[in-house]
Design brief:
The structure is a homodimer of 322-residue chains.
Chain A (H helix, E strand, L loop, with lengths): L5 H11 L15 E4 L5 E10 L11 H18 L2 E12 L5 H17 L3 E9 L4 E10 L14 E5 L4 H9 L10 H9 L5 H10 L4 E4 L4 H12 L3 E4 L7 H4 L2 H4 L1 H10 L6 E5 L12 E7 L4 E5 L2 E3 L1 H5 L6
Parallel strand pairs in A: 3-4, 8-11
Antiparallel strand pairs in A: 2-5, 3-5, 6-9, 6-10, 7-9, 8-10, 11-12
Helix pairs in contact in A: 2-3, 4-5, 4-10
């Protein structure tokens, strides 16, 4: 049970997130006021996480929950080629939630602001039978917005970081993972603390021609499908090229690689970027790993594992069945 | 139970709200893209309505719910001196909700767009144990944003329309009203279909000096208190001047005026405007009624009923007890 009143909670949030930007009028009026000096484009996204669906309040670490709720929105902004500026925070407060959980949540939000500075300019606090967190995030593109629909014939398909980590982390958490993992903490961390790729997209947009981009929330195959569908063009994906965290999984992967590649294909919630470019992308050392996993081409999805073609229909039965 | 899938629902929303603004990229990517040509200020607000708290899904007319969910956000934008441009719609879909309720909701949203054109540019559809509607609304000021904090010594205090109607409507709905009301339908309509005062605030900002403004959501006394507190100045309110809907209540009001004035003081959800100005405000006939109800002055709240001063402490016991 949250003991402080709605008014006190708003005051607490107000104190926890003082506005640094003098051009902004934040929490406390009917609406927030922002100024967009000389900028022509603005990015807006919203994402909601609900108790019982996206997390379980009895088990969840609220500091990580606060971090992740903002991270997934920042990731959407990054996937459009931008960086975050402003956020609105709406909390549905249920009787099951207590003050220390709320404090943890606000700490987590403050933690991610240290990495990705943005101003919290408003929101809403409401009573609800179910606890939820709803964020609206506003950002601006480093250059032009990068759409899902921009992929062209012969573009290389790249992914950032390692893929499937979050899904493996969730499987460890749920105790449904088939193998003993060498470093389980790594995968749990990857599930709870995604790293929005703002720095990477800044470098890419400033140094390369990036035709399309999306972040991996539903799973690599599904999200690549969104690029394909919206660009009106097919793709060829070499499944064995998907960068899974081999060294963190341990030597077991050698005996059942396909089990782990399936997390890479369909795991979801990696919040890494899939992007396409006609160029060979080379990155400085400080940047995250980027791996080419295929090409945009043809009219349909062609999937290959070590040269052998696999129909999407077959894949639906699960990659491990091959 | 909603039978269509999340994907189909997004498609349905997409079809129901096609983008007319060529500069906008709406639903379908990681984030929406808007262009702010030559505009320097932007207004942003968010408001959430939850089943069991703000309405009861078994009893609610979902068309009115869709209308009202947008109306309260538009009212916030109007209270800042602006008009709406863009909205994001987040729906938490529970098993209790069915397809025809969703259709009604979207109809209601479309209805209010006929009166106040705005683009629906994004949102989120999530499963939830409790049905809720969360809106983020973006607008821009006709001139400058009008803050709660701008009231000055000797400003006249004005309210738009009639006050307390929504509270009377709710009391009729809940069957806790003490009297037979002459036209109950009027009050129910006022509760379910608030009229955001966008036209009024446009006229006022263009023709008068408006120092401060707020919309009535919590109740006249409480919302006037926000202006007072944030402006660091007191006020004198003549309670009998509050424009209650005498002719719609009927002759009963003559015998128990204070019972109805209490709805005017504390009823809430009127979504009329309270504003302060140093000027005598005169309006053309097409505009809603505007009534002067007091002055900003001193350091504290002074309430008078027909010349007799009433302390806020006394008022807490209920105005009808005097």
């Amino acid at each position: 049970m949250v003991k402080i009143s709605e008014f006190e909670l708003i005051e607490k949030i107000n104190r926890a997130f003082p506005n640094h930007d003098k051009n902004v009028i934040g929490i406390g009026d009917d609406a927030a006021v922002i100024s967009i000096p000389d900028k022509k484009k603005e990015l807006i996204t919203t994402d909601t996480m609900i108790n019982g669906v996206h997390f379980l309040s009895e088990k969840a670490d609220f500091e990580k929950l606060g971090f992740k709720s903002m991270a997934v929105n920042i990731s959407d902004i990054a996937a459009m080629g931008g960086y975050p500026l402003y956020a609105l925070l709406t909390l549905g407060i249920s009787d099951k939630i207590n003050d220390s959980q709320i404090d943890g949540l606000l700490r987590g939000i403050n933690n991610i602001r240290n990495e990705f500075p943005f101003e919290l300019i408003g929101g809403d606090i409401v009573k609800s039978d179910v606890f939820f967190i709803s964020i609206t995030m506003i950002g601006e593109p480093f250059k032009n917005p990068i759409m899902r629909s921009g992929a062209k014939e012969n573009d290389f398909i790249y992914v950032s970081g390692t893929i499937g980590d979050s899904g493996i982390g969730l499987a460890i958490e749920k105790e449904i993972i088939k193998y003993d993992i060498l470093t389980p903490a790594f995968f749990l961390e990857r599930h709870y603390k995604p790293s929005p790729r703002v720095d990477l997209i800044e470098y890419l947009t400033k140094n390369h021609s990036i035709h399309s981009c999306i972040d991996i929330s539903d799973g690599l195959l599904q999200d690549l499908g969104h690029i394909s569908e919206m660009s009106g063009i097919g793709f060829e994906l070499e499944i064995e090229k998907i960068p899974i965290s081999r060294d963190k999984i341990g030597s077991l992967v050698l005996s059942d690689e396909r089990y782990f590649l399936e997390f890479g294909l369909s795991g979801g919630e990696d919040y890494e970027l899939i992007f396409t470019s006609p160029e060979a992308v080379a990155l400085p050392k400080a940047m995250p790993l980027v791996t080419q996993i295929g090409r945009m081409t043809g009219n349909s999805a062609v999937l290959r594992y070590k040269g052998k073609e696999i129909s999407p229909k077959e894949l639906k039965k699960g990659f491990t069945h091959f």
